[in-house]
Amino acid sequence: MKILRWELKSYRGAILGLILVCLALLVHEIFGANGYLALRRQKQQYQELQQQIQTLQEQNQKLQKQIQGLKSDPHAIEKMARDQMHLARPGEIIYTLPDKDKPEAPASSAKDAPPQK
After folding, report:
1. % residues pLDDT > 70 (the chain)
2. How many CA atoms lie within 13 A of 71 on its CB side?
3. Fewer beta carbons within 10 Å, N or C terminal of the chain?
4. What is the Cα–Cα distance from 5 to 95, expressed in whole angstroms?
């Protein structure tokens, strides 16, 4: 019996050491530089980048269609010239109105006006 107890005591230290090593490895696997949390963060970044790629590809397709239209369609060229460059045909008059979103300049107040006699 005494020999059995001595063997159990000697194994107890080894078992405790193994448990601590396993615990350290588990913590490193979860929180380490290449651990589970880092992997989740990288997957999230990957999904965000894939979404950005998708959005940019859609924008690229729209721009390609616009370029193709400008190369081949004279009405598209005229529309862009009228809208963006404010060009007009001979004899036409262009009226430019202020944007609704922009606030108007404040009206002159009484103290800015010249004194009346």
Report:
1. 79
2. 6
3. C
4. 102
